[in-house]
Amino acid sequence: MSTIAVIGAGTMGRGIAYTAAIQGFAVQLYDVYEDALERAKVEIERLGAKSFERGYLNEEERERLQTITYNGSLQHAVESADVVIEAVLEEMSLKLSVFKELDEYAPAHAILATNTSTLSPTEIGANTSRPDKVIAMHFFNPVYRMKLIEIIRGLDTSDETVNTIEAIGRELGKETVIVNEFPGFVTSRMNCLIGNEAMNMLMEGVASAEDIDKAIKLGLNHPMGPLELADLVGLDSRLRNMNALHRALGEKYRPCPILEKYVKAGRLGKKSGQGFYTYE
């Protein structure tokens, strides 16, 4: 398993491509939009240079980033892949459409993985001819820094597929946990509850965003506050996750009204310049 194709050149996709490349995998990064590929290349090279200057990468690892292929053809990106990792928007209809094409173009031996925090690998796999080779790999942002990959097996995912993805996770320098599919898996269920309650406290005037985050970081030893993290993930992405969990698991996952209001206003967090905080 030496070639990884990453589908989607957004924040998560380029983070996965960057991590795989520095660990020695041959990487194909695909996006339907040429400007997204151009932005990904600039960002990956910027991050590589910054990490090299700070001593996090050696010269060989930095040079490996130059081997990433930025591909505007899905067929060409996946036709020689051993593993395909999809990292598109968290919408089931879009993922099903992508996986239909992946199933057509990827080699028969290739494992098809979805980077999702809430959606069902069972449903995605059922829409392919290889449900035994479909699995979820939930990466965390920023991918190059976060140590965990949450591996979620679908109903028909084979043990061989799980074992292979575990091994690839180790080769990527990550720790892994194996989760049997259930809405929200492990981390998203907990994270969405904490973040939603922080938003409710902000709406109720319990404390400022800064003080809520400070309390969680210093009192509970979280590396980031829940409102900071929501801004980093993207408030639109968080709202999609909350709506999916609300449908599946009931009232305790009803999105906070302030989250819905911010998304309607275009305050999507760090990527838009404003969310619970303001960014340059």
UniProtKB/TrEMBL annotation:
Metabolic or biological pathway: Lipid metabolism; butanoate metabolism
Pfam families hit by this protein: 3HCDH (PF00725), 3HCDH_N (PF02737)
Top enzyme class: oxidoreductase
Keywords in alphabetical order: Oxidoreductase
Residue ranges of domain 3-hydroxyacyl-CoA dehydrogenase NAD binding in the record: 3-181
Domain 3-hydroxyacyl-CoA dehydrogenase C-terminal: 184-279
Enzyme Commission number(s) of this protein: 1.1.1.157
GO molecular function per UniProt: 3-hydroxybutyryl-CoA dehydrogenase activity
Highest taxon, organism lineage: Bacteria
Similarity comment: family membership: Belongs to the 3-hydroxyacyl-CoA dehydrogenase family.
Stated name of the protein: 3-hydroxybutyryl-CoA dehydrogenase
